[in-house]
Amino acid sequence: MKLLFDFLPIIVFFAAYKWAGIYWATGAAVAVSAAQIAALRVLRRPVDRTQWFNLALLAGLGGLTIALRDERFIMWKPSLINWAFGIAFALSLFSQRPLTERMLGAQLALPRAVWRRLTGGWVLFFVLSGALNAYVAFVYQVTPQSLDAQQQAIYAQVATDDGAYAQAVEGRALTELDAAARAALAAQTPAQRQAAYLHKLHQDLWVNFKLFGLLGLTLAFVLAQGVYIGRYLQPAGATESAA
Q1: Whether the model pTM is above 0.90
Q2: How many Cβ atoms are within 10 Å of 186's Cβ, its own excluded?
Q3: Measured between alpha carbons, how far is 39 from 32 in angstroms, rounded to an integer?
Q4: I need a labelling partner for 94 at 20 to 30 A (CA). Which of 18, 86, 111, 226 fits?
Q5: Beta carbons of 126 and 81 less than 8 angstroms apart
């Protein structure tokens, strides 16, 4: 349940994006994160510092995304939060008890060297996850040559077909667009329309990666660490002699 609670803003972001686009999705994610903390406060449950940090980062970058109509700000959020966690875990290696031991030491008895390896593994994971998100968001480009047959057909249609453009880029029927949106569409050149379609495909790619890619990598890494921990499990109280 806690895992579902922690990933709820990401799930809401994904659902809202599919329904109404990235700006509504950003606002929904900020609202859900704030509601989660408010609910914990009302129920007198502890609120982790990481939850406050996540809300502050999400609200700041999300606010800039909505105010400036620029999704690049919210696209930085997974990278920045992963790198922040990576720095925190790395700094804990210079303390008596690394972060993994502080978080799980009450439930598991492991040698000190194992705790340090686990923490180092999380540092590497957070750094690589942040870098991978940055690559998908800002380096990788969707090009006409990378499209499949169906996308190639839509790419050709959106250049001159208002209805195809509205459906593929705006996610709505042409009749659902207001007068201002129709006027803006009429003023676009075929090349601009096709560029907007490629941009939308890139947005879709990043949103899918944010939910399925990063979540899948996290679950796989947690499973791998669980297998590694299993090799060293020992009765409570044996940590000192094992160390």
Answers
A1: no
A2: 8
A3: 10
A4: 226
A5: no
